[in-house]
Structure formats: C-alpha cells, structure tokens
Design goal:
GO terms for molecular function: oxidoreductase activity, acting on other nitrogenous compounds as donors, with NAD or NADP as acceptor. Keywords: NAD. InterPro entries: Nitroreductase, Nitroreductase-like, Nitroreductase/BluB. The chain is α+β, with helices and mostly antiparallel strands. The chain has one domain: 3-Layer(aba) Sandwich (NADH Oxidase). It has six helices and four strands, in the order H-H-E-H-H-E-H-E-H-E. The chain has a four-stranded antiparallel beta sheet. Bound molecules: flavin mononucleotide. The site of flavin mononucleotide has 10 residues, from strand 3.
Length: about 190
C-alpha cells in the first residue's frame, strides 16, 4: 500500500497523550497541510487559533462541560452516556492534550464549514504522518457560545467551528479502527 493510503488507514482518534509539547515545526507542518486543502471558489476561508496555555485549555474543558450539562439538547443526538460524562470531573473533553487548534470559518464565505472540514482532515493526516496523535473535537463547541470565547481573539467575521487536539501518543500501538460500514457504495457504469 502506498504511504498516503497507509496513513489514512492508520490514523485513529487518539485519547491519551504524553504531557510534552509538540514542536513548533510540527505545528507549522500541520497547518501548512491544512491550507493546502481544496476550497470552494478558492476562498480559503479559514483561521487557526493555536492554544497551548494550560489554564485556557482547562477553562475550555470546564466551561464546555458545564454549558453542555446545563443545556444537553443544544447538541443534537448526543448519547446519554456522553451527557452523563459531562458531570464527571475526571472526563476531560480535550483528553489533556498539550495543543488545541481551533478552526474558524469566514461567515461570508460560500461553504466555509465544508472547506474547514477538508482542512481539518488534512491536519489529522499530516499529524499521523509524523506519528503525532490527534482528535477532532465537537465537544468544545459549547465554549464558543459563551462570553469566554472572546479570549481566543478570533478575527471579526470568523466563527469557530471545531477544535482539534494534538500531542504525542501515549501508546505507540494503534488501537484497531472502529468497524467501517461497507454498504455505502453504489456504482452507475
Ligand atoms: C465532527 C467530529 C466531531 C468529533 N467530536 C469528538 C469529540 O468531541 N470527542 C471525541 O472523543 N471524539 C470526537 N470525534 C471523533 C470520533 O468519535 C471518531 O472519529 C470516530 O469514532 C471514528 O474513530 P477514528 O477517528 O479512530 O477512526 C469527532 C469526530 C468528528 C468528525
């Protein structure tokens, strides 16, 4: 299998990280991969906020959990087990990763959330290619609905969509992938 296909298949959401920070050069490579994603009308409607401040990471965790616990229906189709986890002080939604990158999209762009999602997938794959663990996080979104979000200094006209946590993997052996549905293809020849 070629290296790209191997990286795609080896990437797993990582939920246990070492405490050491990843290198600036690694973050630069991850963001460079992001900005080479395709975008509708070549608008490149994204902004990346790299957070490595432990206090702010802790705040994003606690505020997101509190906000979600207070209004569990604000996120569609969340399983009961996850809503219950919000009340567990041991559950850290960022999994104590040392770096969190928030990806924001330009509100005036044609399809910013799709473009940003393509960029995020590139980031996950770039990270895996360097053996860096990553996870795409929707559970940080409640933080974006609070006043605290101003601390992120996201440029005007941009809306934060997702967080992606990065760090060195605590365990080197990748766990097996959640089984993929195979009945998702039809051919028209
Ligand atoms: C939009 C999106 C949001 C996600 N949010 C979370 C999250 O908040 N917490 C989490 O543990 N995993 C989150 N995930 C990771 C998924 O659970 C994971 O990708 C899926 O179970 C498949 O596992 P894999 O990434 O190892 O292939 C998210 C994935 C996506 C695409």
């Amino acid at each position: 299998m070629n290296q790209v296909l191997e990286t795609i298949k080896n990437r797993r959401s990582v939920r246990k990280f070492k405490k050491d920070q990843i290198k600036d050069s690694e973050i630069e490579a991850i963001i460079e991969a992001a900005i080479y994603a395709p975008t509708a009308l070549n608008e490149q409607p994204w902004h990346f906020t790299v957070i490595q401040n432990k206090n702010l990471l802790d705040e994003i965790n606690t505020v997101s959990k509190k906000t979600l616990a207070e209004n569990p229906t604000s996120m569609k189709n969340l399983p009961e087990s996850l809503i219950n986890a919000m009340g567990n002080p041991k559950y850290n939604i960022i999994y104590e990763a040392p770096t969190l990158i928030i990806v924001s999209g330009n509100k005036n762009a044609h399809s910013a959330i799709v473009d940003c999602s393509a960029a995020i997938q590139n980031m996950l794959l770039a990270a895996e290619s360097m053996n860096i663990g990553s996870i795409w996080l929707g559970l940080v979104r409640p933080y974006f609905t609070t006043e605290n979000v101003k601390k992120l200094n996201i440029p005007e006209d941009f809306e934060p969509y997702y967080g992606i946590a990065f760090g060195y993997k605590l365990m080197e052996t990748p766990k097996s992938a959640p089984e993929r549905r195979k009945d998702v293809i039809n051919y028209v020849k």
